[in-house]
Automatic annotation (TrEMBL), chain A:
Residues 2-31, 51-82, 84-113 form the 4Fe-4S ferredoxin-type domain. PANTHER family: ANAEROBIC DIMETHYL SULFOXIDE REDUCTASE CHAIN B-RELATED, PROTEIN NRFC. InterPro entries: 4Fe4S_Fe-S-bd, 4Fe4S_Fe_S_CS, ET_IronSulfur_Cluster-Binding. This is 4Fe-4S dicluster domain-containing protein.
Automatic annotation (TrEMBL), chain B:
The keyword Oxidoreductase applies. It comes from Deferribacter autotrophicus. It is an enzyme of class 1 (oxidoreductase). Coiled coil: none annotated. Belongs to the Ni-containing carbon monoxide dehydrogenase family. It catalyses: CO + 2 oxidized [2Fe-2S]-[ferredoxin] + H2O = 2 reduced [2Fe-2S]-[ferredoxin] + CO2 + 2 H(+). [4Fe-4S] cluster 1 binds at residues 42, 50. Homodimer. This is Carbon monoxide dehydrogenase. Its EC number is 1.2.7.4. One of its GO terms (molecular function) is peroxidase activity.
Length: 202, 626
């Protein structure tokens, strides 16, 4: 099964995934024209700030079993057979918000989309860019991410990489143990951010 | 909308906190709200590794080393960071130097076309002329002034490769030799800025060291050129600052008066506004509208220019500009250039306040435009004051809340005034340094940065250093912070170490000296240079350091760079966008010592920074054998 795995320690909060997501789900698929479309496309991935100004690109995990599918009273949320992605049939969505309540990640938002004939909001969650994936491309957010905080691939292979890192970490002496080896300048930058986050509380 | 932060976390100043609360209650958006809305700020931008100098980009370098290592053209992170840094210096140097140019033009207009700017300080004019090698004996003031103007204009426009006149006249030979050896002596203030733009455009200079060297050159054109010219010409035209008592903070606004806040950087207009605010006819008009009179106060560096020369009260520094309007008691905020938030117009819409833009360089949509012209300076200033007075009747009394907070402060320590306070020469200060009563001097430079708790770094660093018997001199938003905190009072010396306290008490001076606006950082260079000459050493040998502890603007980058290039170890309390290149960081923080005798040091914690600066000063003392 292919999925987008997130490495939050590599996210530097540039929000390019958000912008690319919005472009990919727009009608014209262009940064410069999308803002003049009748319904302006919105990102379905959300980079938000957590502790110490660190960021996390939060998106639909396409869970299986998916709480949103289980709870949807109109069967508007379905699983695509070949990709296993969790998709929304907009015409069936009644905007009841049950999926949003059930979602453990809080990533379901409701908005208008040109894909529905009526002028109402529907569940606009991430579809893993199924159209792009079927064309052999990566999801737009993954393509946009230049630090590999978002990686698309066979989930077990991606986890395997993470596992190697963890093995490395636990076999190191405690004082040099780190979950992920950060370059020196990034460490410095992170420490500055941390200081900034804490300095106002002095 | 309830905020997830407290005003107490955003400023150490109570008047400021009170106005933040008022803004919150009245649903007025301020800079702190906008910082919150900007989170997360782009990591590429903060690391300095995005390039948009051509439209094949924007290109970004993966700081983790896995993604792209080069931009489309092949530029590496090192090249991109160095280019971006050089461009910041160019912008900062341009701002200061253009300010300087405007003052020279005002003096030129006065002499050649009768603009209403009489020379107020003939003594200063003669001393500047002497330094520049211009004859002064038995000559008319006008003739001397013409020659001084010519020398200044030359520095902005000459095309040969020799060092600019002002740097040549003001810097000692050892320092000039260092610049010559490093190839960084400025040739022409404008040219060095232009050359940065040329070097950093698509496909020109790729080398970090030569890019930084050009940055240094432009910054020296600022510190020993544009800024120095601004300071000296302003002193000549408007008077050299003298020591005297002033008032600072939002509490200088007066409930029953027409309040005019003059904000920005260039005193050419604000000088006239202060004059116009004293015009009996306009005061009479204010009374007709029901006010007790006109209260003209300053803000930011324009405010400091007026404070050090005329004792005009200052309402605040950079982060307080919106809050002055939030008091509801400001009839007009008159703005010129630099550090003026575009948001002022939006905040003013919540009140009757008029924002009046005056510079041909800066137009604010939504503001009242009354553009300045040197030749008609008096009329325009009166028109501006009249506009403010006529607006008094629109004030909504129930919206007025002026915080009580204001502090007294001694200000106006120009080099001349400092020498006078010391009895005519630097010797008492030098003796105190030699004997170790005072360990050294740190120059602190202005700026507030919204990412730092307002005034916290300024005050903490100053307090820590004076405890260690280090005398502080400084300018800009730092100076306003100290004025607001009461540091500029002689009695504050009780918080200093025993040595510094004794000296301050015997001279009746505070432990930290206000040297003026941020363009006046040149005064600190002149002072350092005088001391180096007296002791027969280079500036880099002296027990001196610099700091921009809440640095924010491109001007601060230029100031920091010319401090470093003048041989001064310089602390930054906020991180400039250079961490994306370890090579650039190394050049700035290590290699620069070998090239120009000074280097940068970044430390967000002011207590730790004070410790490092103190240790550096002690190291310098040891090397000098004192």
């Amino acid at each position: 099964m292919k999925a987008v795995l997130i490495f939050p320690e590599r996210c530097i909060g540039c929000k390019h995934c958000e912008l690319s997501c919005a472009i990919a789900h727009s009608q014209t698929k262009s940064l410069f024209s999308m803002f003049s479309e009748k319904i302006i496309s919105k990102p379905r991935i959300h980079v938000e700030v957590g502790e110490d100004l660190l960021t996390f690109p939060n998106k639909c995990r396409h869970c299986n079993p998916a709480p949103c599918i289980e709870i949807c009273p109109t069967n508007a949320i379905v699983r695509d057979e070949s990709t296993e992605f969790v998709l929304v049939e907009y015409s069936k969505c009644i905007t009841c918000g049950m999926c949003a309540i059930a979602c453990p990640f809080g990533i379901i938002t409701f908005d208008k989309t040109p894909n529905v004939m009526t002028n109402r909001s529907v569940n606009l969650k991430c579809d893993n860019c199924i159209e792009r994936v079927e064309e052999g491309k990566e999801p737009a957010c993954v393509e946009a991410c230049k630090t590999n905080a978002l990686v698309f691939g066979e989930i077990n292979n991606l986890i395997g990489k993470k596992r190697k890192n963890i093995t490395k970490t636990v076999t190191k002496s405690p004082d040099e143990a780190e979950e992920f080896e950060l370059p020196e300048n990034i460490k410095l930058w992170r420490s500055m951010l941390k200081h900034e986050a804490h300095s106002n509380k002095n | 909308m309830p905020k997830n932060w407290k005003p107490e976390d955003k400023s150490i100043d109570q008047a400021t906190q009170e106005m933040i609360k008022k803004a919150e209650k009245e649903n007025i958006e301020t800079i702190w709200d906008r910082l919150e809305a900007q989170q997360p700020q782009c990591g590429y931008g903060q690391l300095g590794i995005c390039c948009k100098n051509c439209f094949q980009g924007p290109c970004r370098i993966d700081p983790f080393g896995d993604g792209p290592k080069k931009g489309v053209c092949g530029a590496t992170a090192d090249t991109i960071v160095a280019r971006n840094l050089a461009r910041m210096i160019a912008a900062g140097a341009a701002a200061h130097s253009d300010h300087g140019r405007h003052v020279v033009i005002a003096m030129y207009e006065a002499i050649e076309h009768g603009a209403p700017y009489p020379i107020k300080d003939e003594k200063k004019l003669k001393s500047v002329a002497k330094k520049l090698g211009i004859a002064v004996d038995n000559r008319e003031i006008k003739e001397i002034a013409k020659d001084v103007i010519k020398k200044a204009f030359e520095d902005f426009g000459k095309q040969d490769d020799s060092i600019i006149n002002f740097a040549d006249a003001y810097a000692n030979d050892k320092r000039k030799q260092t610049w010559k050896d490093a190839g960084v002596a400025p040739r022409n203030i404008d040219r060095e800025v232009v050359e940065i733009m040329h070097r950093t455009t698509m496909g020109v200079d790729h080398d970090t060291v030569s890019l930084i060297a050009q940055g240094i050159k432009a910054s020296l054109g600022d510190g020993w050129g544009g800024s120095l010219i601004a300071t000296e010409f302003q002193d000549i035209l408007f008077g050299t600052p003298q020591i005297g008592k002033r008032e600072a903070n939002l509490g200088v606004l007066k409930e029953d008066y027409v309040n005019i806040v003059v904000h920005g950087h260039e005193p050419v207009l604000s000088e006239k506004i202060i004059e116009a605010a004293q015009d009996p006819e306009l005061i009479e008009l204010a009374k007709k509208y029901g006010a007790k009179g006109i209260n003209a106060v300053g803000m930011c560096c324009t405010g400091l220019e007026l404070l050090v020369r005329h004792g005009t009260p200052i309402a605040g520094n950079y982060l307080q500009q919106e809050l002055a309007i939030v008091t509801g008691a400001v009839e007009a905020m008159v703005v010129d250039v630099q550090c003026i938030m575009p948001s002022l117009v939006d905040v003013a819409r919540c009140f009757h306040t008029k924002i009046i833009d005056t510079s041909s360089l800066a137009t604010f949509p939504g503001a009242t435009h009354i553009k300045f012209d040197e030749r008609k300076a008096d009329e325009i200033a009166k028109e501006i004051v009249r506009t403010a007075v006529e607006n008094f009747s629109n004030r909504e009394k129930n919206k007025v809340q002026i915080p009580k907070g204001k502090s007294e402060a001694i200000g106006g320590f120009s080099v001349e005034a400092t020498l006078e306070a010391l009895g005519g020469s630097l010797q008492p200060l030098e003796d105190a340094i030699k004997s170790g009563t005072i360990r050294g001097i740190v120059g602190i430079v202005g700026c507030n940065n919204v990412k730092v708790k307002h005034n916290y770094n300024h005050i903490t660093l100053t307090n820590e250093l004076i405890k260690n018997d280090i005398l502080i001199i400084g300018t800009g938003c730092w100076a306003t912070a100290c004025a607001e905190y009461g540091i500029f009072l002689p009695e504050y010396a009780k918080n200093a170490g025993d040595g510094l306290r004794t000296i301050c008490e015997s001279l009746g001076i505070p432990p930290a000296l206000n040297m003026g606006s941020c363009v006046d950082c040149s005064r600190m260079l002149v002072l350092a240079d005088l001391m180096a000459r007296d002791l027969g050493v280079d500036i880099s040998d002296l027990p001196l350091a610099g700091s921009a502890t809440e640095a924010m603007t491109e001007k601060a980058v230029s100031i920091g760079t010319y401090f470093v290039a003048s041989g001064i170890f310089t602390h930054l309390g906020t991180t400039p966008p250079v961490l994306g290149s370890q090579e650039v960081v190394k050049v700035l923080t290590e290699n620069a010592f070998d090239i120009v005798g000074g280097a940068f040091y970044v430390e967000p914690d002011p207590v730790k920074a004070a410790k490092t600066l103190t240790e550096y000063i002690e190291k310098k003392r040891k090397a000098l054998g004192i």
